[in-house]
Design goal:
This is nicotinamidase. The protein is of the alpha/beta class and about 190 residues long. The protein is built from 4 helices and 8 strands, in the order βαββββαβαβαβ. The relative contact order is 0.20. Bound molecules: pyrazine-2-carboxylic acid.
Length: about 190
């Protein structure tokens, strides 16, 4: 039965998990927890979609001296191992994959494309009006994706137990921003 709901799995990639170039503490566990949550909740969503940070030359998003707020060590470069999905997450559950950030910073999955199609139009075209957002990292790409989802008019929740973040301060401000934008926060934040 169609329920108009989708799960958006944000950036569960090797570079954001332990051993990666921009590892988020608990990233690998989040990947596994997402996989189990999907397996245990068949029918909860019409579609699962995934996003990927997928950089070629994103300019000042990469830095030799990153501030870990606006600039970062090189990560998720197309063709490298770090850009791959974490092995704890099987992307075959996803109906579509949205890549973002080839030539600029792109925190939101709504900046991503699957072939020629953007995430918002793909979701609308598939009858989706409600989204649940999980993945990495709470304070950056999950935040930006959830905020854009709400602004695009989707009823939006973030399942915090299925996210992990970079830094406690930016996690706190991300939670405040998401609430302010009308995103429903479920569960407890996991992070640094
Ligand atoms: C992300 C920092 C830099 C994320 C991406 O996926 O949250 N964080 N690029």
């Amino acid at each position: 039965m169609s329920n108009g709901r989708a799960l958006i799995v944000v950036d569960v990639q090797k570079d954001f998990c332990e051993g990666g170039s921009l590892a988020v503490t608990g990233g690998g566990n989040v990947a596994l927890a997402i996989k189990e949550f999907i397996a245990e909740n068949e029918g909860r969503w019409d579609h699962v979609v995934a996003t990927r940070d997928y950089h070629i030359d994103p300019g000042s998003h990469f830095s030799e001296n990153p501030d870990f707020v606006d600039s970062w060590p090189p990560h998720c470069v197309v063709g490298t191992e770090g850009a791959q999905f974490h092995p704890n997450f099987d992307p075959r559950v996803a109906s579509a994959i949205f890549d973002k950030g080839a030539y600029e910073a792109a925190y939101s999955g709504f900046e991503g494309h699957s072939g020629e199609e953007e995430l918002a139009s793909w979701l609308r075209g598939n009858g989706i009006n409600t989204v649940e957002v999980v993945g990495l990292a709470t304070d950056h790409c999950v935040r930006a994706t959830a905020v854009d989802a709400a602004r695009e008019g989707f009823t939006t929740s973030v399942l915090l137990n299925l996210t992990a973040g970079v830094n406690p301060d930016t996690i706190a401000s991300a939670l405040a921003q998401m609430r302010h934008e009308g995103v429903e926060l479920q569960g407890e934040p996991v992070g640094a």
